[in-house]
Amino acid sequence: MKNSLLYRCLAQLVCIPALVVFLYPLALMIQKSFGVNGIANYRLVFDYYDLRPNFATSLIVVGGTLVVMAAVVSMAAYAFSKLQFPFKKGIYYLLLTAMMIPTSAVIFPLYQIVRVFRLNNTGFSLIFPYATGSCCFNLMFLKNYYDALPNELLDSARIDGAGKWKTFLLIMLPIAKPGLVFALMQTFLSSWNELQMGMIFINDTSRQPLSVVPLRFAQTTSATGFTVNHLFAACIICLLPIGIFYVFASRYMVEGLTQGAVKG
Amino acid sequence: MKKRESAGKRMETLTNYLFILPLLILFLTFFAYPILYNFIISFYDWNGISVTKSFAGLANYRTVMSDRVMKAVLKNFVIIALGTTLPQAFFGIIFASFFRRHIRFAGFYRIAFYLPAICTVTIVGNVFSKIFETNRGYLNVMLRSAHLDFLCQPWLAAPHTALLCILFVNIWQWTGYSMLMYYAGMLNIPDDLYEAAAIDGAGPVQQFRHITFPLLRGTHYTLVILGVLGALKCFDLPYVLTDGGPAHATETFSTYIYTKSFNTFKQGQASAIVVLMFMIAMAITVIQLKMYYKEDRDKELAE
Q1: Element at B261 (helix H, strand E)
Q2: Which option is the CATH number for A38-259: 3.30.830.10, 1.10.3720.10, 3.30.1440.10, 1.20.1440.130?
Q3: What is residue A250's DSSP assignment?
Q4: pTM (2 decimals)?
Q5: DSSP H helical segments within B28-67, as ranges?
Q6: Measuring CA to CA, which residue among A184, A157, A182 is closest to residue A254?
Q7: Domain edges within chain B
Q8: Which residue of B has its CA nearest to A233?
Q9: What is the pLDDT of residues B37-93, one digit of tens each?
Q10: Helix, strand, or coil here: B135?
Q11: Would you list the domain boundaries of chain A?
Q12: Listed residue (A19, A45, A43, A41) closest to A32, CA to CA
């Protein structure tokens, strides 16, 4: 495809202002975080806040969510795509409705469960709710992915004497890997950044996930004597882990989406 | 012989169920049970803490229906659904089609435009509340230094501009997502279609109208559904930017339920709102399924 000069100029005329709008808030934050005292702003943030427990909570929550999600959804998506059992379609659509249910519709009852099991203020309270949401969200995507894989693979595996679980683990799962990687990345982003459950299930501020912590920065500026520069330095620190993740993950994002059929 | 065969068949069905059992258990515990719980609580007068609760019949629903704030919530739901989904899809498809035609710096733009989508919302909230702040906010300072004082607004402090700010930040954050989905959809459209169209003398605009846009039907549809449901779920941005205010101007279902449950302790009413919200979500789902089935049938007919 050759683009005309007019098209190329027009495209840049749209993209350059858009780039300014998209990056301005982030650039502003970085620039101001070094304002007045330079790197000392960051040092002051570390003096006031020990963010290591928060970081640990985030890691536990995201790690646990990814493990549970990957195991549960790849089995279910495979079953809905390639196996036969009664009420298959009905159960499938029932599970998909979970995608439509907002967090605020389930949060109070779940909070009660979490308290009964004394899981509040631990990362474990968040793993299963997050994993369930991501499973239902990724179920359709992964099922479509398996649908695109030919049934002949299954037949030849059966002729070779492989059982159902063996076929799933050794043949289907490896082929579906790019789709699973995409699902894992989306889950990483959404569970790392989740706010609502994180702040309610874990109300001990010293242990809240990193996504909730910045709420505290703005609320406590008068007590800590933080200026806007310190505030932004604190924000940058909280943004760093997910930013580093994005640098490595960005190339796989489009790949996972296009190799599997996104016909849904 | 026949009996053994049917027993084997039953065994097989059971093992097949084992594959979906974990997901089914998670679904029942973390979605079905809470919805049922809210449905029951919606008929009680309860503060969410004390051991006793009294049966209230439909009183909670009556209170909620006549609540003026609920009108704002419903209005905001419609405004947010339309006001974010359409602009995001519009800009998303424009950027994606530029990148599909490999304009210069396409790879860099793609990564940069998606960047807001990975940012933690509490951090986004901190930055934008400094930008939109009335007295020393960066936006008003900029406007004043450009001698455009008449454009200065108390952005987050006035009811109608506050909602506009929420819309703007939402569009800022999620346009990259629409862009990515459209871009992935466009990569699935084979190059030869465009080449054939180019030979027939179709320019970029005509190619977009007659090839790209119609072939992305699945993506349009997914994004609209996700956008409408996103508006229904909308909690984070209003919570961090305006806390539903000023004067409930940016109140959404989720922020209002949160206030009722955890601030004013009217759990019965909160549950009634949950039930209403759930019914809206299900109505959207039913419409979606209808369209799905229709598409399925269309495909079968076409084959």
Answers
A1: helix B253-262
A2: 1.10.3720.10
A3: H
A4: 0.89
A5: 33-41, 59-65
A6: A182
A7: 60-302
A8: B123
A9: 999 999 998 888 888 888 888 889 998 889 899 999 999 999 999 999 999 999 999
A10: coil
A11: 1-33, 38-259
A12: A41
ipTM of the complex: 0.87
Q: Is the CB of B218 less than 8 angstroms away from the CB of A25?
A: no
Cβ(A79)–Cβ(B19) below 8 Å: yes
Pick the residue from chain A with its C-alpha nearest to B277. Answer: A105
Residue of A nearest to B261 (CA): A108
> Of the candidates B112, B204, B284, which has its C-beta nearest A7's C-beta?
B204
User: Strand ranges (DSSP E) for A54-138?
Assistant: none
To which H or E segment does residue A45 belong? helix A40-48
Please check whether residue A40 touches B, CB under 8 A.
no
> Do the chains contact at A101 and B281, CB–CB below 8 Å?
yes
Report d(CA B108, CA B106) in Å as an integer. Answer: 5
Identify the helix (H) or strand (E) that includes residue B44: strand B44-45
Residue with tokens 């109505």: B283
Length of chain B, in residues: 303
Q: Which CATH class is domain B60-302?
A: mainly alpha
A29 CB near a chain B CB, below 8 Å? Answer: yes
pLDDT digits 0-9 by tens, B132-188: 988 888 898 889 888 888 888 888 888 889 999 999 999 999 999 999 999 988 988
Please tell me whether residue A85 adopts helix, strand or coil conformation: coil
Given a contact cutoff of 8 angstroms between Cβ atoms, the answer to whether B141 and B161 are in contact is no
Tokens in use for A29? 């934050």
- The H-or-E segment that residue B54 falls in is strand B54-55
How far apart (Å, rounded) are the C-alpha atoms in residues A68 and A128? 8
The upper half-sphere exposure of residue B92, i.e. CA atoms within 13 Å in the direction of its Cβ, equals: 31
Q: Round to the nearest angstrom and report the end-to-end CA distance of chain B.
A: 41
State the alpha helices, DSSP H only, in A83-123.
88-97, 107-116
- Which positions in chain B touch A262 (Cβ < 8 Å)? 181, 184-185, 188, 218-219
What amino acid is encoded at B124 in this protein?
A: V
Q: Which amino acid is at B15?
A: T
State the Cα torsion A10-A15-A20-A26 to the nearest 10°.
180
Q: Are B230 and B284 in contact (CB under 8 A)?
A: no
A49's torsion region: left (phi>0), alpha (psi -120 to 50) or beta? beta
